[in-house]
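From the shared-data thread, chain only:
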Amino acid sequence: ADSTLTGLLIMILAIFLTASAPFWFRLAVFGACLYVLQITTSKTPMLTIVLLVCLELFGRVIGFMQGKYYNKFLPNIYIGIVIISIATPFVAILYGYTIGFGSVTVNTSSFVERATDSWIMPHYLIERYFPLGWLTGVGIGTVGYPVYFSRLSEWYSAMNQVDNFQFAIYLQFGVAGAFLYCFLLLRFPRYESNTPWHYDVVIALLLYGITVLGFAGSSYSFVFGCLLSPLRQMSVTVEARNIVRRTLSDDPKPERHHLAII
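Structure, as tokens:
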């Protein structure tokens, strides 16, 4: 939906533009974002912003500041978020059928709908039309708008509403694609160029992808792909980044630069 994509862009811009800002300034910007996101009615980015603020507050309260905050706290929290983002839809499917729409509020009804319908229906379609898809996936474009213009257009109403990035990866690329995705997620903490800003963005995208397809717009996949890409660790990329950072550190007025090096 347009409101969901708008919420993603607002959330990402807030994190990008406050990458090197003091915490109090980031808190003010995130507060303004919450007000704007409330207008878009997109609950996922709102909750993501709140969780990011809570994580940083928790990190400061327990004393993990600067180097300690980055080296000990963030990587562990990141692994926890990865596990939660992958496990949430499976747990919701297993226990979602016990929840009735009459027992939930309007704000949580969309999540219950995912657990009882949109996360389940694609599996019935694979079982009916292409059982081999459990292993190989059903192909690029079968999750999202392209399938609407094919002979499999009856898939569209269900496959377009998967509303989970992890499920979409598995449904399109199969076991091999899911394995590669998990490999990149687990490899990310090993990148030497990581900063708290990188963790903030990836954690935000992981949380956002729990209830959003992610492939509907290119922004999500593009940013996520850049941050998880092994190319960030290639010697040429690392050397180029080091040159830029040395140049900025030699500048007598480095505060004028607002360049975020991926």
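The CA atoms of residues 139 and 172 lie 5 Å apart.
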